[in-house]
Amino acid sequence: MKLAQALMERADIQRRIAQLNSRLQNNAKVQDGEEPSEAPEALLAELEELSKQLEELITRINITNSISSADDGHSLTSLLAKRDCLTQKLSIMRDFLNAASSTVSRMMHSEIKIFSTVNVSELQKKIDFESKCLRELEVQIQTLNWTIELQ
Fold this sequence. Notes:
Blueprint: H1 3-26, H2 40-67, H3 76-101, H4 120-147
């Protein structure tokens, strides 16, 4: 199985666990004399089984990530860490850019003028460059995911 397939399977199991959570909440209580629409014991047993599958799959994915590397010698784990940090940084930069570039309307000339604290166009260029780097990194990671065998 390729790493990408394992990642899709992990996402599916996580989605099924989230659905089980909702189903369990819906069947936690019933009125006196009523029956739950689904047996909570069966749902809990399914949760137990899916949790075991997820744990095993995550372990195998993490082992694969730690021993796999790109052509440039960087480990897949380091590429993932770089992607996560770059994604977070870009999100913060975009939020800041939105705040810095928003206009404040004034009704009268006597009202206080509001100015941006940064050069908005320069910051936008930096965000565009960083976004391009992130896209290239994503392509590199996805390529590795479809070529590496799961350990």
